[in-house]
Design brief:
Length: 225
């Protein structure tokens, strides 16, 4: 679809359950031809909406990462009507280092959208999502927590987009998450955010803050799933 240098063995049009990686080129002093491999799975079964489910936008936010990895293992084709694309760890270098920002280029993935196909590793990931995955999705779910520095009471939240039909869909999705409370926000803190890019493409975007402190607990894990 685009000029992204990221490659994957996933066939997004194929039915059934697939496992693979997004292979992000990474040239550094020890290897001129290295790759960063981002885990991805897809389940496609018949007609229905496409849901893009992601976590690990910030590396030190683990509940969503653990929950999606479990869903990747346990969900079966017959449980899906439509297409579910799952990426448990968007920012693999940061997840390995237990940091919010990528230790490779020092960038915040959630401030790099729409990305750049000629940029650094973090820019490449943002560009791939913007040009390859958001266009395929109807619903975009981005699971967050407070990470190392913040603890949030578990909640779902959404941005008050201008389009009223899109806003209604996002509100239904946010409330369906069944957290004790949800919050709506009118202003965006910063630029280059994943939700804003997906919203600009007309997607139903749902995000969460599921506790924090670089840990996950059984209740939070159940909520994330």
């Amino acid at each position: 679809m685009t000029s992204s240098p990221i490659r994957t063995e996933i066939d997004y049009d194929a039915s059934g359950k697939q496992w693979g990686t997004l292979n992000v080129p990474y040239s550094y002093n020890l290897s001129g031809w290295s790759q960063i491999q981002i885990p991805i799975a897809q389940i496609k079964n018949g007609d229905g909406p496409t849901v893009l489910l992601m976590a690990g936008n910030h590396g030190d936010e683990y509940p969503g990462q653990v929950a999606i990895m479990r869903l990747m293992r346990e969900l079966q084709v017959e449980q899906i009507h439509g297409r579910l694309i799952m990426i448990p760890i968007l920012n693999v270098p940061a997840s390995r280092a237990s940091t919010r920002l990528s230790p490779i280029d020092g960038k915040n993935l959630n401030r790099c959208f729409p990305g750049n196909p000629q940029g650094t590793v973090t820019d490449l990931v943002a560009h791939y999502l913007t040009t390859e995955l958001f266009p395929r999705a109807d619903i975009v779910i981005d699971l967050h927590t407070g990470g190392r520095g913040i603890y949030f009471y578990p909640c779902a939240h959404m941005h008050l987009v201008d389009d009223l039909d899109q806003r209604r869909k996002m509100a239904r999705g946010t409330m369906a998450y069944n957290t004790d409370f949800a919050f709506l926000y009118a202003d965006i803190a910063g630029t280059g955010l994943l939700p804003v890019e997906a919203e600009s493409q007309g997607k139903t975007v749902i995000t969460t803050e599921l506790s924090g402190g670089e840990v996950t607990t059984s209740p939070v894990h159940k909520l994330a799933q």
